[in-house]
Every structure is written in structure tokens, then in C-alpha cells.
Design the sequence.
């Protein structure tokens, strides 16, 4: 176990500094930010993403309202999140190829389970991972993740590459979102009362990152089925 060296109050959030250079921050009841949790895994995660994308290319999906998403997406695992004019849903097969989504790599499963356990969700076994790719200018408008069957299951998200400003709202769309800076290797576990909170990502600023170049990636692990 790492040793707590210090504790600061930052606005509403509590930050614990650990000897390994990792920090845990409670963003809200049920929402735990694990800063730097996946830093060491980032290069291997990016190699897995490169393999996945050879089988299931990134694409800009269409919202049910007919707008092309600025974030490019692909999936791995048995439950892949898709959107088109028909709506949002999970599909076992990639609609672009007709093939099953690539399998979830072991390092994906391991990371998601370790992060969830640290946040109090032991035994988390995701069945899908949505992979989001942001170029500069890409954004994700405020939304809820509510296409999954069991909201008692958390969602684990992993940031890779360029930093982003995460918008963390509340249970109501009108709740003014807090801005949380997320960097490469940061992991957030969203469970409990925060599971259905509104959230989004501000337009990505230009930059260069040693692991991902001019982009940001985000992995969201879900138990969808
Ligand atoms: C807060 N992705 O794919 S994950 C998404 O950085 C999505 O690409 C963002 O939101 C991204 O749906 C951030 C963070 C996230 C995921 C689920 C949540 C935040 C959440 C569920 C409830 C509250
Ligand atoms: Fe989301």
C-alpha cells in the first residue's frame, strides 16, 4: 500500500498525494479520479489501439439527429457502442464491416478491473470498450451515458495523449458543469450517484504529445449487457 503524504482541499474535491506520484481525487460521490494511474501502460495501450483500428477503423458516426460527430470512434469487446439515424445502441458487430468487434485485449481488461477495484467496485468485468479519438477542435457535447442495462455498474474512463478539459455536470442538464483538466494516464471511475451525471469534453486544443502525437484518445469501459 502506498503511503499518504499529504492532503489538500481543492474546491469541493479532496486530493490525496501518494508516494508513487499517483493521486486520488473524489470528484463527487461515486466519481473517483485516479491521476496518473495508467501512465506506465500508455504506450502498450496505444499499441493495442493501433491493432484494433486495423480491424475496426475509426469513423465519425452520425447522431440520430443527423450530425456527424467530431470525435472519431471504434470499439472492442462484445458490446460496441454505435450511433446512426436509428439511434444509440450497443452492437456485437461493426456496422462498417459486418465483423464482430475486435476482442478486448487483456491489458484493457486488467486496467479497467484494477481501476474499478481501487474505486470500490471489485470484480468489474466490462463487455465493451468505446475508443474515442480527438483531433484538435473535436468535442463531445454534454450528455448522459444511459444506453447500458445496469446503472449499478460503473464506467471506467482512461485518457491518453493530449490534455483535455472534461466538463462534469450534475444530475440535471441545467447543472453548470465543473471543468476538470485530464491528462494522459488519468483514469476516472464513474459509479454510484455520479453514474448518470451529465458530462462532456471541451474542444481539444492543438498540441503535441510524445505517445499520441497531435491527438487525444479516451477509452471508456462499460458493462453494457
Ligand atoms: C460521467 N467520453 O464516450 S469519458 C463517452 O473523454 C464520454 O471521450 C469522454 O463521455 C471522453 O461517453 C469522457 C468520461 C465519462 C464517462 C461516463 C460517465 C464520464 C462520466 C458517466 C457518468 C458521469
Ligand atoms: Fe459519456
Sequence:
Amino acid at each position: 500500500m502506498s503511503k499518504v503524504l499529504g492532503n489538500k482541499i481543492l474546491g469541493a474535491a479532496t486530493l490525496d498525494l501518494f508516494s508513487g506520484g499517483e493521486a486520488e481525487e473524489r470528484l463527487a460521490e461515486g466519481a473517483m479520479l485516479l491521476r496518473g494511474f495508467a501512465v506506465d501502460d500508455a504506450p502498450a495501450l496505444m499499441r493495442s489501439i493501433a491493432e484494433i483500428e486495423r480491424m475496426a477503423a475509426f469513423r465519425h458516426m452520425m447522431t440520430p439527429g443527423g450530425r456527424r460527430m467530431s470525435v472519431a470512434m471504434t470499439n472492442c469487446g462484445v458490446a460496441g457502442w454505435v450511433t446512426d439515424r436509428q439511434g444509440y445502441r450497443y452492437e456485437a458487430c461493426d456496422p462498417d464491416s459486418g465483423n464482430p468487434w475486435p476482442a478486448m485485449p487483456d491489458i484493457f481488461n486488467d486496467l479497467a478491473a484494477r481501476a474499478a477495484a481501487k474505486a470500490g467496485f471489485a470484480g468489474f468485468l466490462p463487455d465493451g470498450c468505446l475508443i474515442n479519438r480527438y483531433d484538435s477542435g473535436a468535442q463531445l457535447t454534454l450528455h448522459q451515458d444511459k444506453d447500458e442495462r445496469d446503472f449499478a455498474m460503473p464506467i471506467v474512463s482512461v485518457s491518453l495523449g493530449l490534455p483535455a478539459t472534461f466538463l462534469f455536470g450534475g444530475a440535471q442538464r441545467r447543472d453548470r458543469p465543473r471543468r476538470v483538466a485530464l491528462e494522459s494516464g488519468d483514469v476516472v471511475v464513474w459509479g454510484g450517484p455520479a453514474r448518470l451525471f451529465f458530462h462532456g469534453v471541451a474542444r481539444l486544443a492543438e498540441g503535441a504529445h510524445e505517445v499520441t502525437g497531435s491527438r487525444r484518445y479516451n477509452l471508456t469501459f462499460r458493462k453494457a449487457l
